[in-house]
Specification:
Elements: H1 3-19, H2 21-50, E1 61-67, E2 75-76, H3 80-89, E3 93-100, E4 104-108, E5 114-121, H4 125-129, E6 135-136, E7 151-154, H5 156-163, E8 173-176, E9 179-186, E10 200-203, E11 220-225, H6 231-248, H7 250-253, E12 257-262, H8 263-303, H9 305-313, H10 318-350, H11 369-395, H12 399-404, H13 415-450, E13 460-466, H14 475-490, E14 495-501, E15 510-512, E16 515-516, E17 527-532, H15 536-540, E18 544-547, E19 561-565, H16 566-572, E20 582-585, E21 588-596, E22 609-613, H17 621-624, E23 626-633, H18 641-651, E24 658-662, H19 663-669, H20 671-708, H21 710-718, H22 723-752, H23 768-794, H24 798-803
Helix pairs in contact: 1-10, 2-8, 2-10, 2-11, 3-6, 8-11, 8-13, 8-20, 10-11, 13-20, 13-22, 13-23, 14-18, 20-22, 20-23, 22-23
């Protein structure tokens, strides 16, 4: 098409928009809604799934884990001994390193003490990622050796936030958990590995005994493939190695196989299903918006048929007329896209915070080149889609029929109403699919909120403490400190009970294979082990069902005792008769002296747990150092936060009181509840938007039909039809369209809501109540949307209607 012709079409389109500002505004705003929500969600998808990792040649970086059917059906960590063999015998990797994705350091010195997350990385890991430090250097070989100097790398955010971005930090010493570490460098912005974005990274030192340690699989691995080597080749190379290890060490390695995945896929994994669902939802919103615009364009094209006839009579070809209409439609869509980008920016500023759930903590959401290109492409597609039907009608227009109609715009015959009605049916079907999905997620979220967790979270203050080895080297000193801290906190006015445990919900207890005296337990039948102090059960409101709770007499040197949860008693003892029975833990026999109610994590099944008294020192000192506290209070728990800090700092001013929050806030921030809330809020919002657009669509089509059929309706009234008859005529037409849309929508909902299964809790994807509520709700709204044009039809003046041209 010559540029001169295109310029003429654009000038004509702009003049037309100025003459019809109301029509242009309606089209632009409708498309802005559809394109804006799509651009906002795409920016999240781009950040999580499409944006390349901030490392050189990220497609060659693999996450290296294992599949161990004895532990889980999911990917799990690798034992130190196995990892060392894999690294030694693999030739597929240019560099392969291990990491420990958990741990903390307490930063003391200037300012208030603070707890920081810490990851350990072995030699080869930073090289596999291709990390270049922002400041200073990376670790050197000597710092990965036993007895080597204590070194640490700061995250970019910690360097900026705590140390003001001081470039002279490299080479300085900081005190971490009572020990002085040299800051050798600062990691680049955006650094992350599976397990999160740590505040600090320290060397992972392999000791000589690690070469034979297959007792626990806690290491992750990251490797960079050699040039020309594929993932499949690396996987195949490790296969024979793991088979040999399984033969040599069947007790620990039977069934263990390597599991290699692209690192990008690992980071995107938890968000993939949810983001695909949300992308589909906003895609439906755009389709509904485009259908509404197509109806507007069809109505406008019908009113312009005399103009089109005149232009055709003056020599304009049908293709030129069709191109003119398409040009106008695309221009409106591009304006809608520009407004949609402004709406996307607004949405990104008010969206529920997904950082830490789906997004890296420091990711910046915005309108980068990919998002702008995506919005532009959507605008073009929406413009062509919404302008296609009017353009086709112009290309196939019947000049003589329109002339014979007297210029009343009847040239469209029945085709225009049928096309418009088909679009409305499509809108209602799509809206029903979204409404059903939103209802399922809303039900799931409400069930998570009202789930019986086995304890009473209301009125409980929680926080965590960890005592450093440098100040508390022996188990006895650790137990004495925690006993004194609980005593001081328990004496604060307003405190009802205070206790502590190794883990508090939503964290899960660590697992072990219990050995029951006089009974054989299956190797697959594991349970959780939990350290608890006197006062934990009353602080959480966990009932003692049989026997007793821990007392001050349960100390080191006393007879070892254990308390079983109700599910542990039922699973491991016939009839649940656990009292007086003995369980082996860490080579020590413990007598079960009590049975308590089950506590659970939101959205997770109940798991059996055995509790041991922290004061009896049932595990080595390193496992005793960190505890999470639960303090039951009268009134608002946060009111006592200052008193709790003071009680701890009176004992040790260098201990950070971390994660100080109510139990309710702690549960709400847990990944299961937080992700459910995020997904629900967005899908309910998009479903509501789709519903509004669908109702506007059905209202617009019926209003247009009433205006087009004014002469016919007047004739009906002249022949004896009453106002109620006309009301029913228009209303029944709208309801017929609604029923058609619901029928198609139900088929789509039955098929597509199955995608939601992995996001639901306590409700099936074919939940009858959700469908039963969605359909009547949609019908009621449709009746309201149909009533206005039906009422207008019933109030027509028959004489004025018969004069209508």
């Amino acid at each position: 098409m010559p540029m001169e012709t295109l310029a003429q079409d654009l000038r004509f389109a702009l003049r037309g928009l100025r003459k019809r500002p109301g029509h242009a505004a309606a089209v632009v705003l409708t498309l802005a809604l559809g394109i804006g929500v799509n651009a906002a969600v795409f920016s999240v998808v781009n950040a999580v799934m499409l944006r390349p990792l901030p490392y050189p040649e990220p497609d060659r970086i693999l996450d290296v884990l294992a599949i161990n059917p004895r532990i889980s059906s999911q990917r799990v960590g690798v034992s130190p001994a196995d990892f060392l063999v894999w690294r030694e015998e693999s030739t597929a990797f240019a560099s392969l390193g291990a990491y420990v994705p958990f741990g903390t350091f307490d930063l003391t010195g200037e300012g208030e003490p603070v707890r920081l997350s810490r990851h350990l990385v072995s030699e080869g890991l930073l090289g596999a990622l291709g990390v270049r430090p922002e400041v200073g250097r990376l670790f050197v070989s000597g710092e990965y050796r036993t007895g080597g100097p204590r070194a640490v790398l700061l995250s970019h955010s910690l360097w900026r936030g705590r140390f003001g971005g001081d470039p002279a930090m490299a080479g300085k010493g900081i005190t971490l958990s009572g020990e002085v570490y040299e800051v050798v460098g600062v990691l680049p912005e955006g650094f992350r590995i599976p397990g999160g974005q740590p505040d600090l990274v320290a060397p992972l030192v392999f000791r000589p005994e690690d070469a034979t340690d297959r007792s626990a699989a806690y290491l992750g691995g990251i490797g960079r493939l050699r040039p020309g080597v594929t993932l499949e080749q690396a996987q195949a190379e490790l296969g024979p190695v793991t088979e040999r290890l399984a033969r040599q060490f069947p007790g620990s390695n039977e069934g263990v196989t390597p599991s290699l995945k692209p690192l990008q896929e690992v980071f995107a994994g938890p968000a993939r299903t949810a983001l695909l669902v949300l992308s589909g939802a906003v895609g439906f919103v755009l389709l509904i918006a485009a259908a509404n615009v197509a109806n507007l364009q069809l109505a406008r094209a019908a009113s312009r048929e005399p103009e089109m006839v005149l232009r055709a009579a003056l020599g304009a070809g049908s293709r030129r007329l069709a191109r003119q209409l398409l040009t106008e439609s695309v221009l409106l869509a591009l304006l809608g896209g520009a407004c949609g980008l402004l709406l996307a920016l607004l949405m990104l500023s008010v969206l529920p915070d997904a950082r830490g759930l789906y997004l890296p903590k420091d990711v910046e959401l915005g309108l980068d080149g990919k998002v702008l290109g995506f919005a532009f492409l959507l605008s073009l597609l929406a413009g062509f889609a919404s302008g296609l039907l009017p353009a086709l009608r112009a290309a196939r227009g019947d000049l003589y029929r329109t002339l014979q109609s007297g210029g009343r715009g009847a040239g469209g015959g029945e085709r225009s109403p049928r096309s418009q009605e088909l679009l409305v049916v499509t809108e209602i079907a799509l809206a029903l699919v979204l409404l059903t999905g939103a209802g399922l997620l809303l039900q799931s979220f409400l069930r998570l909120q009202t789930e019986d967790l086995g304890f009473e979270p209301e009125g409980v203050l929680t926080f965590a403490l960890s005592v450093p080895e440098a100040s508390y080297p022996e188990s006895e000193r650790i137990a004495a400190f925690y006993g004194e801290a609980l005593g001081r906190i328990g004496r604060i006015p307003g405190v009802v009970a205070a206790g502590a445990a190794k883990e508090l919900p939503p964290a899960e207890p660590w697992s072990f294979l219990p050995e029951i005296e006089g009974r054989t337990v299956s190797k697959e039948d594991s349970a959780g082990w939990q350290l608890a102090t006197e006062g934990l059960f009353p602080a959480l409101g966990i009932p003692v069902l049989q026997g007793r709770a821990f007392t001050a007499a349960d100390r080191e040197g006393a007879s070892p005792v254990m308390i079983a949860s109700r599910s542990a008693a039922l699973r491991f003892f016939p009839g649940g008769a656990a009292l007086g029975r003995r369980v082996l833990f860490n080579a020590v026999w413990y007598e079960v002296v009590g049975i308590v109610g089950d506590q659970k994590t939101p959205g997770a099944p109940v798991s059996p747990v055995f509790y041991m008294a922290h004061s009896q020192l049932p595990v080595p000192a390193d496992y005793l150092r960190s505890l999470s506290f639960a303090v039951r209070t009268k009134g608002d728990p946060l009111r006592l936060a200052g008193d709790v800090r003071k009680a701890v700092w009176e004992l040790d001013a260098n201990l950070p009181v971390s994660d100080l929050q109510t139990m309710e806030a702690r549960l709400a921030a847990g990944s299961t509840v937080a992700r459910s809330r995020f997904n629900t809020v967005l899908l309910v919002t998009f479903a509501a938007l789709a519903l509004v657009l669908a109702m506007v669509g059905i209202y617009g089509v019926l209003s247009y039909q009433v205006s087009r059929r004014t002469h016919e309706l007047g004739l009906r009234m002249a022949l004896g039809a009453g106002r109620a008859d006309l009301f029913r005529l228009v209303l029944s037409r709208g309801l017929l369209l609604t029923v058609g849309g619901i029928g198609i929508g139900l088929l789509g909902a039955f098929a597509l809501t199955r995608v939601l299964e992995s996001l639901l809790f306590g409700v099936g994807s074919l939940d009858v109540l959700t469908f039963a509520a969605a359909v009547p709700g949609l019908v009621i709204l449709a009746i309201l949307a149909c009533s206005l044009p039906a009422r207008r039809a019933s109030r027509l003046d028959p004489l004025e209607a018969l004069r209508e041209e």
